[in-house]
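Sample intake sheet
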Amino acid sequence: MATNASGGEPVLELRIHGVNNMPPHELLDLPPDEVEFAMGDKLGSFWHPTAESLDKGRAQQELGEGSRGVVDAVESPRGSVPEGIHREAYSWGGMVRTVSPETGVGGAIVAAIGRACWTAVLPFSIANAAIWSWNLPRSGTRIRFQSGLIRVFCVVLTTLLILSFASIALDLIAVQCYGGRRLTCTALPEAFEGFARWSTGRRIAFFSIVPVAVLFAIFATSTLARLRYNVAGRIIKGTPATEEPVLLAQPQFWQSRTEISRLTSMHLATGIAMTALLCGLALASSSRPGWGVGVCIAATVVMVTAVVLAYRTDTMPFERLEERTPLPTLTLTAAFLVLAVATGALSLFPGLDINGYAMRIAFNWVLVSTVLLAVLLVTATLFFPAPDRIHRAWGGMAPAVFMTMGLVIGLALSCIVNVVMGDWLNGDKPASALGGGRKLATAYASCTGTGCVPGDPSLRLGAFYPWYLGVLLAFLIVALLIVAIQLIRRRDVLPRIDAFWDDASKEPPVADGSPRGDLRALLAREVSRKRASAARYHLVEPILGALCLAGMAATVVTVITAFSSLDQRFVTQLLAPEPFATASVLAARWMDFSLIVWGAVGLAVVGGLVFGGSKVVRPLGLVWDLACFLPRAGHPLGAPCYTERAVPEVARRLSWWLDLPRVKGQERTAIVTAHSMGGVVAVSSLFALATHPKWLSDYQGRVSLLTFGIQLRPYFGRFWPEILGPEVIGGEPCRAPRLRARDPWAADREHVIAEQKAAAAANVSDRPSPGVVPAADWISLWRATDFLGFPSWSTTPNDRDVYAEEVDASGYVGAVDAHSWYPRTPSYRRALGRLAGLPERQPGRP
């Protein structure tokens, strides 16, 4: 194993970046030609400065000290490494939604396409997060029921994806785009002309390949990612700590279990059986209804069996391992057989006459019923309140919020795909034409007669797809307006951060006339503005809650509307009076407008997730990053869990360093320095390292942690308390930010102060809990201008959290830093020196 590590430094400083994939040279704050590769591959790799870069940086540092006396009074050279420290950068951004520039143009294009494909399964990953947000006991019937509930919901999400592509392939193209043995959708390529000579049943059978192919494409991508990411079993060799209350300290937490493969089989079986059911509905709408009913019954039996098996498949690390069973394989085989029978009957029966209108109504019944089932599953989670709801996200309703988020995003993506595709195939007609308008019964009739002409297909979608986009947009606009009114309120966080300045951990006083003092005075207004802006970003939890509530309301309203519109004669009579006709026209125009808006939103989302770093989709990107941190125990076809690869790699690198020979009689030590989401990787890696057989006898006490700009306490600690809550990382429980408050965290600060006073009055020790992060020492930097960075212990002064400088004076032009460049601050250098045991320089004046 090539390491290229210097043998003369006793301390390893291992830097870990956040999800935006800062390139290794930027993470080391050096030019690209001053870093070199140590080990790894395109997904995860370790880098360190070249020998020439180290010599140059240390020479500049010595020159500065000689000319100014004290290096901390003026910024040290960027990228310089103190004596006694070997600095490395761990690059893991290739595992998430961004791509490293070093992969080249071709690699960047391939990665961008891959990220676009992962966007389609974003709802799966978000729903997967719900299974980890329950109150997670070690065992019991209740948690098995709750986790099974999430697995069933995830199967429903897969079914909705199948229905989306089946609507396009089986209804729009196979049926509506052909009439009188002619291709009426001239937007399709000429290759589709040949299908006009086929019977409608044969076309439906052939195009049923599309939803199944989409399902298997997602399966193939997910399986490839699982094989590339699942390395924990080869790296983490610890023994399962059955008595350890911390889930992160369980080696199997990062190891993909065989049950995940069984759960994958159930998703495949459900998707294939749903395609067979739709083919059966087409048969039932034909001159052979008996065959169709038989296929529908068989497909339904297979789907129910798959759902029951998914419910019973234990995938959580604390659930029991089940013996191997042939049921998943048999169910998947049965799904293929039912689909083969359905497509065979559609293809082989001569003169099969299919009623396209009846088939479409049946399709809509299945779609709306499936959405209704998803809504009911979300509602069911509300009947399992969690303890200590005040310190859990959304008052203990995190499972419902994550499920709602996945459902709404999934439905929105499905509707966008269907409406955009239908609008493209429909020629120059507006998008609202897909919904029917006043003459719904006529509009739903299939184009099967000689009256159909090329270029005038008159396509129609079911009631749900076109209307959902308009209803969802209306509800979201109302929610956003309410939120915007609250966000424009004045924000002032100075009273809270003043307490940190008065503490011993504050930035040392700056002499008047010093470079930093001049810059602070010059940039005071920008500092104030960035603090207020960051305070608004900190309101992610209440904002997402409001948007999810609006999304669920839109879903329920559309379901009710869609069920009503299934009786076309009733709707036609209802819309006959003039006032209703006028409302119908206005609604149609709103649909056209909503399609434009959602098209722009879809492009922004895909573009942001593909290319990364886009402020337009930062909130959704944050949701993506949070969701993909967790193993796929709920939905096996979601985006890859990057920590399944990153955590074992970091743990292995630390153990390698700690096993190196002593340097001048001094033991090797390591300092893990991590930014943003890298802090989650760092903490998880320390727990993984604690399972190593040599931890208690050798490693313990030789690893320290330096984090900056992290989200552990207010996000992870509230979303998944049993994984990264206060009992795991140590610290005070966190209350939710208040949308209307001038300082979102003022109530949390007051609550912590009250708890501390009560503990002091009762003479209760303020020691960390037994599950605290296994680090010899931990220092965490934060600043009020950081829109994604928070204290790790509490919003009150403490020994761990240090307020970092907001003004960067290390460059030619001073700047106010927000979420980046913590390593350039004097606070970082002081913290690093303290953890490394280096002599502390006393601040002074130049």
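Comment: The CA atoms of residues 296 and 486 lie 51 Å apart. The longest strand covers residues 85-91.
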